[in-house]
Amino acid sequence: MLAFADPELDNGPRTGKSATLRMCAVSRKQRPTSELIRFVVSPDGKVVPDLKRKLPGRGLWVSASRNMVAEAVRRYHFTRGFKRDVRVAATLASDTENLLSQSAVEALAIAAKAGQVVSGFAKVEAALAARGSGGAVQALIHASEGGVDGIRKLNALARQNPGNRVEMTELPIITVLSSAELDLALGRSNVVHAALLAGPASKTFLSRSQILVRYRLADADKTAGTAAGNTNSHSNSLSG
Predict the structure, then answer these.
(1) Euclidean distance between CA atoms 9 and 47, whole angstroms
(2) Which CATH superfamily is domain 96-239 in?
(3) Of the residues 43, 163, 170, 206, which has the maximum number of CB atoms within 10 A of its CB?
(4) SS (H, E, C) the chain
């Protein structure tokens, strides 16, 4: 059952598992909370993003889009929405993007510590080849500035279906993080390729990657309310 919040502000973080809609303060359209970012006012009166939707106080929701957040700042939507004087950084849109990136890096680091990530071309290649015998690869990760040849070779391997196993599904291909960010998450140098293995931590990373892609690309994709990445006939690509 869908729960509808106050049109302007919510009443604090929700703990229920039911699907929830909120109204974007800029577009005035109802959207699932997975497509929005919640903002709250800190004790010192500053507007801050609540990416985990757990901070106390009433929240104002904005579509997960860099341009939407920038417009909310430019047109004083936070002041009007919270109905009080608040401090809003001119850099809030870029600050929010940086926090989304950090959140994805942290999730990948947790997945790596849980043994749910392999990195390096040879290891990724071996993990992809093992899919035909029950391998547990859930996504392919490339650094955003990765070399074309290596990416093409691994993407081609990811599209293969050894033994015609009909239950094998297309792998998401994630290019939302830089090599430096992958280095930071995985604790090694010059990471360009990695494979995400099955596990709860992997699901968290995929979710955070998706919201980061949505934030960067929503304005270029007029159907961004339904998907966070570009989808082609071969694979799902989450890139920023």
Answers:
(1) 14
(2) Ribosomal protein L30/S12 (3.30.1330.30)
(3) 206
(4) CCEECCCCCCCCCCCCCCCEEEECCCCCCEEEHHHEEEEEECCCCEEEEECCCCCCCCCEEEECCHHHHHHHHHCCHHHHHHCCCCECCCCHHHHHHHHHHHHHHHHHHHHHHCCCEEECHHHHHHHHHHHHHCCCEEEEEECCCCCHHHHHHHHHHHHCCHHHCCCCCCCEEEECCCHHHHHHHHCCCCCCEEEEECCHHHHHHHHHHHHHHHHHHCCCCCCCCCCCCEECCCCEEEEC
3-4/20-23 β-pairing: parallel
Instruction: Compute φ and ψ for 73, nearest 5 degrees.
Output: -70, -50
Q: List pLDDT tens digits, range 48-66.
A: 999 999 999 999 999 999 9
**Domain ranges, ordered by start, for the chain:** 3-90, 96-239
pTM: 0.82
Architecture of domain 3-90: 2-Layer Sandwich (3.30)
What would the pLDDT profile of 154-177 be if each residue is shown by its tens digit? 999 988 765 444 444 678 999 999
Residues contacting 195, CB < 8 A, separation 6+: 117, 118, 119, 123, 124, 127, 128, 137, 139, 140, 141
Q: From CA 168, how far away is CA 189, in angstroms rounded?
A: 32
